[in-house]
Amino acid sequence: MVKRVKPAPAQTPEITTTKQSQLITLLRSAAGASMEQMMALTGWQPHTVRGMLSGSLRKRLGLDVQCQRVDGVHLYRIVEAAAA
């Protein structure tokens, strides 16, 4: 009896886009993002978005997330560190 060998499936790189990575991309834009934009993107409630900003992005990843009030709306954005 001859043993059949299955051909290896073609490996395609799996692209994983997490809500955190989408949020980082949005915050790195020059315009920044409002709380409403971040909530619409992730489907999260405001306290969850704020927790992600302070806990994961600021504390764990060490990103400089700044908040600025423009026309009565808080805009959040990630400020890149200046090159030394």
Structure description:
This protein is of the alpha+beta class. It has one domain (19-78): Arc Repressor Mutant, subunit A. It contains 3 helices and 3 strands. It has a 3-stranded antiparallel β-sheet with strand order 1-3-2. A hairpin with a 2-residue loop joins strand 2 (65-70) and strand 3. The longest helix is centred in the middle third of the chain and has 15 residues, at 46-60. It is elongated. It starts with 18 loop residues before the first helix and ends in a 6-residue tail after the last strand. The model has no long low-confidence stretch (mean pLDDT 89).
Q: Unreliable runs, pLDDT <50, ≥5 residues?
A: none
Shape: elongated
What string, H for helix and E for strand, traces the elements in order?
HEHHEE
The strand order across the widest sheet is 1-3-2
Tally the helices: 3
Radius of gyration in whole Å, from Cα? 20 Å
Please indicate the count of domains: 1
> Can you give the helix content as a percent range?
25-40%
Instruction: Quote the average pLDDT.
Output: 89
How far the N terminus sits from the C terminus, by CA atoms, comes to 69 Å
**CATH fold-level topology:** Arc Repressor Mutant, subunit A
Number of separate strands: 3
- Work out the strand percent: 15-25%
* CATH architectural type: Orthogonal Bundle
Structural class: alpha+beta
Task: Characterize the main sheet.
Answer: 3 strands, antiparallel
